[in-house]
Design brief:
Blueprint: H1 2-10, E1 15-16, E2 45-48, E3 53-55, E4 59-67, E5 70-83, H2 86-90, E6 102-115, E7 129-133, E8 136-137, E9 139-142, E10 165-175, E11 180-185, E12 193-198
Parallel strand pairs: 2-4, 3-12
Antiparallel strand pairs: 1-9, 4-5, 5-6, 6-10, 7-8, 7-11, 9-10, 11-12
Length: 200
């Protein structure tokens, strides 16, 4: 994921990785679905082993990620989505017109390392996360959640071993008037797990 580092160093402003015209995504663009709206975390329940499907708030799913050090199985839980304002979103993009009618949504997803090698480089687990609003995929903002409260930067995690948990966040622009938010997480070629959150 060196491209994230390069983008982060290149500009203090978050990088809008997807054009707003692509917010809807395509119907077959489910392999990287993830993320939802702000809600308090519920008591975690046992993880589901099957690939994909809708989960309750606080429920975790088991997923495998091919990391640089080898394949790791994680328990994944979408904890909440923080939804900002249109004014806040306008400050995060180079052209404020790109954020017209949009708000920043930050998904907090907890990854617990269950089996596999200890990671000596940053984890790619968060790459499977996307945020959807009212059935449409949001526009990815790289770097917008790096310093958000409760979020950890994968590049700062020097060792990620079995039993450890870290919360990685992803940022998307979504319609400010969205009625529902979803956090999607999927393995590279798997069906997405979906956590639904009402918008605030």
């Amino acid at each position: 994921m060196p491209h994230h580092t390069a983008l982060r160093l290149a500009s203090p402003i978050a990088v809008l990785a997807l054009t707003l015209s692509a917010c809807g995504g395509s119907d077959d663009d489910t392999s990287t679905d993830s993320k939802k709206t702000t809600q308090p975390k519920a008591t975690a329940s046992p993880s589901k082993e099957s690939s994909g499907g809708e989960l309750a708030t606080g429920e975790s799913a088991a997923g495998k990620v091919k990391e640089e050090d080898g394949t790791v199985t994680y328990d994944i839980t979408a904890e909440k989505v923080d939804l900002g304002t249109e004014a806040e979103a306008a400050k995060l993009v180079q052209d404020p017109a790109d954020a017209k009618g949009m708000a920043l949504a930050v998904a907090h997803v907890k990854f617990t390392h269950k089996t596999g090698p200890t990671l000596t480089t940053e984890s790619d687990a968060g790459d499977g996360t996307t945020i959807w609003a009212d059935g449409r995929r949001g526009a990815l903002l790289i770097g917008a959640s790096d310093d958000a409260p409760g979020c950890e930067d994968p590049y700062d995690v020097e060792s990620f071993k079995a039993g450890d948990s870290h919360t990685f966040c992803e940022s998307y622009l979504v319609p400010a008037n969205a009625k529902s938010l979803e956090v999607h997480w999927a393995e590279e070629k798997g069906e997405p797990y979906i956590w639904k959150f009402p918008s605030q």
